[in-house]
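Need tokens for this chain, all 416 residues.
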Amino acid sequence: MSTREPSAGHGGESRGGAAAPRVRLVDVAREAGLSKTTVSAALNGTGRLSPAVREKAVETARRMGYRPNATARQLRAGRARLIGYVVGEFAGEPWTYLDSPYFARLTGATASAALRHGYALVMLPAGTLQREWADLPLEAVIVADPVADDPLVADLLAARIPVFSDASVAGRPGAHWVDLDTDAAVRECLEHLRAGGARRTALVLPDSSTRFHRQVLAAYRAWCAEHGAEERLTLVPEPGNGPVVRAVERALGRQPRPDGLFVVAEASPPLVMDAARRLGLTVPGDVRVVCVSEDESAAHADPPVTTLSLCPEELAEQGMALLVAALEGGVAPPRGRDGEGRAPEGPDGSGRGAEGPAPGGRGAGDTDGSGRGAEGRAPGGRGAGDTGGGGRGAEGGSSTPPGVLLTARLRVRASS
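Here are the structure tokens for all 416 residues:
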């Protein structure tokens, strides 16, 4: 009985278990009955080709499993088009930032935005050491929320690798940033609570040295001084639902009891509500609550929790555009009338955040459309920028694009 050995097909199937040969551009051209130049133009979206010819080339390449030789492209271009990504705030627990709804959404949106610009994101562990990235052909590294005097930033800049971060790197050669008006964000939330009747607002904040958290605390203390209110600060020693909920219980258990609660440390909003109930408190009857959160469960709590959304998807898009502009020739981002970075428009085209009714008074997102939303944090970090809330960043030259302030949204979902 005779046997027949299977032959390798156009897709490069292996023969007898051997490694499959790589499908070349010339193979695709031969199969499609087109020239190599035509196929190349079709796959690169260039050339003056008819839709039918372009579709035939693309479909043939897809069916055969063709993919460009990345190594050859890198050699021709002299670039690897890789961008590193690390979250400095979680240096003690390298990969746990993916458990955070905010950082999970920011990371995914940043990776997606990078890919659309022709770059790939390389995930690095927080607290990464030089030996872990020194041999990688990185175009730049995004350092989200670096801690104070983060050695990683200094090491990257010393290695002549551009850094994209928050305003803590402003003015350093090779560094670029996107930031926010933390003062406006904090005041927006505190005024919302005050408009609802809260006069003793407690702040639950991570015990962190990032610029964002230091600016939140400074803004809170300034607001308390201006309103003659007692500071009620509870620090959370580590990230996670458990530590934050225990901190919320400590904050609400202090006397005189707070009647407002501003939870900046990230936790599941329904768990924050449960903590209040365990202490015999009702929301919003006994205590009004605002959480800084991207957790969609906030809308399903009972009652739904008022949250400050920091718009990670929008921020990733704007931040990546700024970084790519810096990498590809120092092209400046869209500029406002004053020549500085311009905040993107809100859903209504006004540059404001999303709007909704603020029970008991009008705060961010008022129904008359007069109030600007609080400023949001960006892919590079969350520190304070222009405190005027006008969406301005620091002025920069053509090779160092200015920082940009982006608008976040206080989502008033309930009478809390």
